[in-house]
Amino acid sequence: MSKLPNTSASIFSVMSQLANEHKAINLSQGFPNFPVDGRLLEITNRLLIENIHQYTPMVGLPSLLEKITTLTYKNYQRIIDSASELLITTGATQGIFTTINTLIKSGDEVIILDPSYDSYEPSVLVAGGNPVRVSLNDDYSPNFNRIEEAISHKTKMIVVNNPHNPTGKIWSEEDYQNLETILDKHSQIVLLSDEVYEYISFKHQHISVNTRPKLREKAIIASSFGKSLHVTGWKVGYLIAPKHLMKEIKKVHQFLVFSVNSISQHVISEYLNVVDFDEISKMYAKKRTLFQDALRESKFEILPSEGTYFQVVNYGEISKKNDTEFAKELITKHGVAAIPISVFYEDATDKHMLRFCFAKTDETLLAAAEKLCAI
């Protein structure tokens, strides 16, 4: 008997495979195609010959834990206890899965805001919980009337994602105030805050739950070095949570992966001494501007991208086909791969939107834009 009977190959796999078959420019899956920082490679090469190839402690490499506590204080002025409030995970996805399967039991309800990243609902289903999907507003801001209406005595968790994948939306101060008001009324609810793109924001500064005293005592925050340092294949992330929640999460984590890749932890720990996250954000801001400017002469409507490395466009002036069909046509006829936004909705809401990833070389982005402008 399947725990995920309605789950098939992800849209990311489908589009990437189709892109490979047709030799299309792949702006679908969210991974960079440019080299990592040379300093990171130098550290990796140097440490590979060291005696660092055995298990690290279950919670994470001590030096990396301390670096994260320093990073968290520097950026969010939050003091965390590395021994009891921090956990290194095999990417943020494993951290999210572990959190949900620790804190959600059979029959519990979890509110997920659509469009939503595709790992949330399966994690809830495997835990025996019931996902309750609530649509964001048309501008992709949270609709707190809908959220509050969706809450019942069975609601045990709300999952938020900021900066938001797939739309690039960033939550405002007012959004967080509204969320705090709701959670004050419903003390049984914990917050899972997916902040894997926290260091990629543009005009509006990312507001982390780490900076919200009212929220962080009932919140689990997921972060990703894969996204922040563009080493997605390393699969290293971390969770920050209050001691009473982290204690339970660690119990499940130790039997799921026990400890995370030792080499990656050692390298990242040393790399954090030299990397500047502000420069990473500036680099992606330049790529966003380059890609947007290159699309100005196209028939695509360019929506705001406030954070992440994703750009959403509306193709309504080009075609009336549904977004999945148009995305496939874009690959087979025009040589560019994107992700249709409808797949991020429970009810497959189709507003003729596509998501492009601009974490690519400038040459790749310009070549893709040339093809898109020719449509």
Automatic annotation (TrEMBL):
PANTHER family: FI04487P
Cofactor: pyridoxal 5'-phosphate
UniProt-recorded name of the protein: Methionine aminotransferase
One cellular component (GO) term of this entry: cytoplasm
Segments forming domain Aminotransferase class I/classII large: 24-372
Record organism: Tenacibaculum skagerrakense
GO molecular function terms noted in the UniProt entry: kynurenine-oxoglutarate transaminase activity; pyridoxal phosphate binding
Domain of life: Bacteria
Pfam families for the chain: Aminotran_1_2
Key words of the record: Aminotransferase, Pyridoxal phosphate, Transferase
The keyword Cell wall biogenesis/degradation appears for this protein: no
Transferase among keywords: yes
Homology family: Belongs to the class-I pyridoxal-phosphate-dependent aminotransferase family.
